[in-house]
Amino acid sequence: MENGETTAQAAIRETDEEAGANIIIDAPFAMFSIAHINQVHLFYRGRLSSPNYAAGEESLDVRLVRPNEIPWPELAFRSVTLCLERYLADRTDGRYGFHEAKIDPL
């Protein structure tokens, strides 16, 4: 987050910077407290506002994949793995909630 921006504005900006994508935010989705590194990871559920996306300065590769194509071992952050697992479970259930958890050191 930058000074003066909301968490939703930060998510929109970061998505553009990381994936060259413009998004519409639907709702907050998950928050993971990672106390041992003094971080909180907040995820929003949203959708692309256009079909355009591309790797930016901070990304090597950006692509859309089906759930069965997610490269689980290659995901850089445990919070992303946990978020995707919860998203896919909610999608299967047909309803989306808000998820909160802490992530302890390995």
Please outline what is shown here.
The protein has 106 residues and is of the alpha+beta class. Helices cover 27% and strands 25% of the residues. The protein has a single domain (7-102), classed as Alpha-Beta Complex (Nucleoside Triphosphate Pyrophosphohydrolase).
What is the total domain count? Answer: 1
Distance between the termini: 26 Å
Low-pLDDT parts are none
Class, according to the CATH hierarchy?
Alpha Beta
List SSEs in N-to-C order. Answer: HEEHE
Assigned CATH superfamily: Nucleoside Triphosphate Pyrophosphohydrolase
Report the β-strand fraction as a percent range. Answer: 15-25%
Share of helix among residues? 25-40%
Output the radius of gyration.
14 Å
Instruction: Report the principal-axis shape.
Output: globular
SS elements, strand count: 3
Describe the strand arrangement of the main beta sheet, using strand numbers.
2-1-3
The DSSP helix count reads 2
CATH architecture: Alpha-Beta Complex
- Secondary structure class reads alpha+beta
Q: How does the major sheet shape up?
A: 3 strands, mixed
The CATH topology turns out to be: Nucleoside Triphosphate Pyrophosphohydrolase
**Mean of pLDDT:** 96
